[in-house]
TrEMBL record, chain A:
<keyword id="KW-0732">Signal</keyword>
<dbReference type="Pfam" id="PF14537">
    <property type="entry name" value="Cytochrom_c3_2"/>
</dbReference>
<dbReference type="InterPro" id="IPR012286">
    <property type="entry name" value="Tetrahaem_cytochrome"/>
</dbReference>
<keyword id="KW-0249">Electron transport</keyword>
<protein>
    <submittedName>
        <fullName>Cytochrome c3 family protein</fullName>
    </submittedName>
</protein>
<feature type="domain" description="Tetrahaem cytochrome">
    <location>
        <begin position="42"/>
        <end position="122"/>
    </location>
</feature>
<keyword id="KW-0408">Iron</keyword>
<feature type="signal peptide">
    <location>
        <begin position="1"/>
        <end position="25"/>
    </location>
</feature>
<keyword id="KW-0813">Transport</keyword>
UniProtKB/TrEMBL annotation, chain B:
<dbReference type="InterPro" id="IPR003953">
    <property type="entry name" value="FAD-dep_OxRdtase_2_FAD-bd"/>
</dbReference>
<dbReference type="InterPro" id="IPR027477">
    <property type="entry name" value="Succ_DH/fumarate_Rdtase_cat_sf"/>
</dbReference>
<keyword id="KW-0560">Oxidoreductase</keyword>
<keyword id="KW-0274">FAD</keyword>
<protein>
    <submittedName>
        <fullName>Flavocytochrome c</fullName>
    </submittedName>
</protein>
<comment type="similarity">
    <text>Belongs to the FAD-dependent oxidoreductase 2 family. FRD/SDH subfamily.</text>
</comment>
<dbReference type="InterPro" id="IPR050315">
    <property type="entry name" value="FAD-oxidoreductase_2"/>
</dbReference>
<dbReference type="InterPro" id="IPR006311">
    <property type="entry name" value="TAT_signal"/>
</dbReference>
<keyword id="KW-0285">Flavoprotein</keyword>
Length: 130, 519
């Protein structure tokens, strides 16, 4: 039984490994689903990754094409001028890094996003889209 | 002839990171990395050429870059991380300065000799004295230089552990970001090429053995090793290594200090690893004091990294409060000793199974008045508030009577101006009379590598065998070894980084330009 199970999981693993690189199988965030799906119903990889055959992590410019510059995004999450410590810091305009950090270090399209700051901090961003 | 041409061709392909490199990478990573340490070729075709390449963008790197630029060189800064500033921009922003205007205003007598003496004492005499003098001698002028570049200091001097007198300035942000960000914007304004996500792979040398550039991965995505495109960057005057320490390289730090295993957290950023150091060693750099790794005695186990407690303890608990064993309620060390003495003392607090028994540091509202991270620490429950000493004792399971008696003894010592028990300097000590109280659990974290490559006072990296400069190779800041000996004093890393960085930048920019080919 055990043996069968592991054989099955191996098969599943291989199947999974084979399927993952296929464009249609790449998970997208719900809110990106529509905009990143072409007329033929397939995910448009090129929208973020460009046309290169070897897919690399998208540049900031790919995100900026729709979302505006990093300064624009920082403005969207600006803290009120009189905000105390009860309001978390602006994740898009950090004390340490300003607006330097590339989007993809926190926002990950095909897996769970993570907050770069929280390698050291304990910030809570409940509205961060995962 | 045609054979030679063929060889050159394939070599060039190797440099360009073509097919040959990919095969080498798959075949044997170790052999690939070792052989890539140095590529000698007079006719290397560079993708880009500048006068000075600075590797790393912390205090040392940014100071080197700006100084070289201000001395007339064209400069490029590369950093493997997605952001600039390394550990520097997440540090506490405190700089030890001998003879600052703020000291004069407060009537504090200081001198370069006194600072050297303090650092020698903390370094257990292991320091490279010539380099130490260079650093201390440059602090006042470098502090002014930073101010001219837009750094803003708090209007008071602080007394950090191990210093015989108050001499520490701190940025208004309580962060090294208050230094790094002004320097990065100045660099951009002055036309310095700032490249992040660009990782040094190896050095490129010419036939005379001079370092003439670096092979990098451009578009590198830390920590994914195979990411990015290989490119060759040429440096007509030299390469300055400002690549910091290896506090977060658990494997390598454990080779030096087996007890510094994965159970010990670190205040460092994730990029504080050893590859750049290893590349320098591969071309002959002399590693000094690599096993001298400092633990930060002000950290808390109740949060990750540097966090909120480190700041709080540095500015509040240590100068204006006390630290007690949670089992006895009693002090057990000089809270203003140097970092090594304090970290060693804290780490003696263990139960009979060897597990840590976290000591409690505390002060009151008066002692915490300058602590900017207090509110954040309270928010994340790293710092806890108690109205009375009884309540504080209950919060941390300390015997209340003993704690109250200890505070009374402490107040007596403050009144007498003398700590008879542990010999703490009392210039800024205050009586602990009134609540509310603020407490923190404490345990050290890996903080700083005193070790690194050996350099001379011209910031040239010296060869292991000849002890002569490796031409074209400079180093500054934490990447160098020997300045601090066995234990660095607080606020001396900023001092070292800025002073030695500028030293390297100035001297490198004065070097003879060599002709390099650019594609």
């Amino acid at each position: 039984m055990f043996k069968n199970l592991s054989a099955l999981s191996l098969t599943l693993f291989i199947a999974f490994a084979l399927v993952v690189p296929a464009a249609n199988a790449m998970k997208l965030k719900e809110y990106h689903q529509e905009i990143m799906t072409g007329d033929d119903g397939k995910v448009e990889c090129a929208a973020c990754h460009g046309d290169a055959k070897r897919k690399t992590i998208p540049e900031v410019s790919a995100c900026e094409a729709c979302h505006g510059t990093s300064d624009d995004v920082a403005e969207l999450t600006k803290r009120p001028a009189d905000a105390g410590h009860s309001v978390e810091p602006n994740p898009h305009d950090s004390l340490h890094y300003g607006t330097e950090l590339a989007c993809s270090y926190c926002h990950q399209e095909h897996k769970e996003s993570k907050v770069y700051c929280n390698q050291c901090h304990e910030f809570e961003y409940p509205d961060m889209k995962r | 002839m045609s054979d030679e041409k063929g060889l050159n061709q394939s070599r060039r392909q190797l440099l360009k990171g073509g097919a040959a490199m990919a095969v080498a990478g798959i075949g044997s990573v170790v052999a690939g990395a070792a052989s890539a340490a140095c590529v000698s070729d007079e006719k290397v075709m560079f993708d880009e050429v500048v006068d000075v390449i600075v590797v790393g963008s912390g205090f040392a790197g940014m100071s080197a870059a700006l100084q070289a630029r201000e001395s007339g060189a064209s400069v490029m800064v590369i950093d493997k991380m997605p952001v600039f500033g390394g550990n520097s921009t997440i540090n506490g922003g405190a700089m030890a300065v001998a003879g600052s205007p703020l000291q004069k205003r407060e009537g504090i007598e200081d001198s370069v000799d006194t600072m050297v003496a303090d650092m020698l004492e903390s370094g257990r005499g292991m320091n490279d004295v010539e380099m130490l003098k260079l650093v201390c001698n440059g602090t006042a002028e470098s502090c002014e230089w930073l101010t001219e570049h837009g750094v803003k200091w708090k209007p008071f001097v602080q007394h950090f552990g191990g210093h015989s007198i108050p001499r520490v300035l701190q940025t208004v942000e309580s962060s090294g970001a208050g230094i790094i960000r002004p320097l990065v914007s100045a660099a951009k304004k002055q036309g310095i090429h700032m490249r992040k996500q660009t990782k040094l792979e190896s050095f490129i040398k010419n036939d005379e053995g001079r370092v003439i550039g670096v092979q990098v991965r451009e578009g590198y995505y830390f920590p994914k090793e195979r990411t990015g495109k290989m490119r060759n960057l040429g440096a007509r005057k030299g390469v300055i290594m400002a690549t910091g320490g290896f506090g977060r390289d658990i494997e390598y730090r454990q080779m030096q200090q087996p007890e510094m295993n994965s159970e010990l957290d670190s205040t460092n950023h994730a990029g504080a690893t050893s590859e750049a150091l290893k590349q320098m060693m591969l071309i002959g750099a002399n590693p000094i004091h690599l096993d001298q790794i400092q633990l930060g005695p002000w950290a808390s186990p109740d949060e990750k990294g540097f966090g909120t407690a480190s700041q709080f303890n540095t500015i509040a608990t240590y100068p204006s409060g006390i630290v007690v064993d949670s089992r006895t309620g009693e002090r057990f060390f000089n809270e203003l000793a140097d970092r090594k003495a304090r970290a060693d003392a804290i780490m003696t607090r263990r139960d009979d199974k060897g597990h840590p028994v976290y000591p409690i540091g505390f002060t009151n509202a008066e002692g915490a008045k300058d602590a900017q991270t207090l509110d954040w620490g309270l928010k994340y429950k790293v710092i806890q508030k108690a109205e009375t000493l009884d309540e504080l004792a209950k919060l941390y399971g300390i015997p209340a009577k003993a704690l109250i008696a200890q505070v009374a003894r402490w107040n007596k010592a403050v009144a007498a101006g003398k700590d008879g028990e542990f010999g703490r300097p009392m210039q800024k000590a205050m009586k602990l009379e009134q609540g509310p109280w603020y407490g923190v659990r404490m345990w050290p974290k890996v903080h700083y590598c005193m070790g690194g490559v050996r350099v001379n006072t011209h910031s040239q990296v010296l060869h292991l065998v000849t002890d002569k400069p490796i031409e074209g190779l400079f180093a500054a800041g934490e990447a160098t070894g020997g300045i601090h000996g066995a234990s660095r004093l607080g606020a001396c890393a900023v001092a070292e980084g800025v002073v030695t960085g500028r030293n390297a930048g100035r001297i490198c920019s004065e070097a003879q330009r060599i002709r390099l080919l650019e594609s």
